[in-house]
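Pipeline run #58 for the internal structure catalog. This entry was flagged by the ingest filter as a single-chain record with no existing model, so it goes straight to prediction. Upstream metadata was stripped on purpose; only the residue string is passed forward. Reviewer on rotation: M.T. Logging verbosity set to normal.
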Amino acid sequence: MSFPVYLYTGPEFGLRGEAVEKVKASLKKKYGDIDEHLYYLVETPFAEVINILSAGTLFTSATCVVCKNAELIKKNDIALLSDWLASVSDEGNGSGSSASDDSDSSVLILVSDEISVDAKLDKLIPESNKRKFWEMFEKDKLPWVQNYFQKNGFRIERDAAQLILDMIENNTEALKNECSRFFVCFQKDHIITCDDVDSILINNREESAFTLFNRISNADAPVQKRFEDGLTILQKIKLSKDTNSVLLIAGLASCFRKLALWHSICPNGYSTDSGTLKNHGFSSSTMQRQYTNAAKIWSSGQAAAILAILSAADMEIRSGGSMMEEVILQKMLYEIVVKKGASIQVLNCSEDF
């Protein structure tokens, strides 16, 4: 029998997701229809996951459970997993062919955005069933975007490909989702330009960390308006099907790192020559206007303080579970927009209005 537990970790969601689907496909090839479950350990006790695996299914031949937040699995959970593995092993070693044939019909796939998990859990799973999915190296990102367009029969200008990378989280899942939008908007003989990227990813895109940053960095709007608009977008993001607060924070952090870079090359907050801006990733006029406005609101020091706030919010969400996510995100937004990087106590959120 094959080992029934897999451990896939790391921030590269696209390739990690493909690995999960490959395990499912293998199970379907062997058993036909399978019973699929998805659990988040910030919401579901691990004991419940083990119960599902132990119970099996009455209506299909196999069960596949994907369990996210595997970094939260600790001593007691590992003991439960060890007991389940022992019971599966006993079935596999039992007499009769049916026991051997069906002993791997329940599969657990442990997934984590983190690189590592508890050492005892890591030791429990064989190397052949583990894989770390790292983010792409900087040198690989631009070729990946260009190749993805080429593979789908499109061409894209180098500056346009770089602009896409500046606007989208660094994982292939997000890149595929956003790049695929161009394929339904243009003919295959069209060459994608920076103006096309502005049109598709800025003017017509779903709400994201980047549209949120664009709205709260509107220097012409009063602070209360920017905060209220930010809350509206935040709510839309939270209601979307594929919402992920950690990815949202990562996207905002990317924007504020670029703002810090903008301040370093434009000490007065205004654009220098276009060549310098292009060399530092500010290719389009839309992006240049956006960061000119953002620089009017937040200084270099405030951008650094906001990055610390984003890091703290990320840690709180990862450790605190989903129940407090909305409060943490709203507090984070208030500290960014109203307090410009100064930390507050949650109960003081109304004092500045």
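catalog note: Confidence is low (pLDDT under 50) at residues 95-101, 348-353.
catalog note: The longest strand covers residues 34-40.
status: ready for reviewer M.T.
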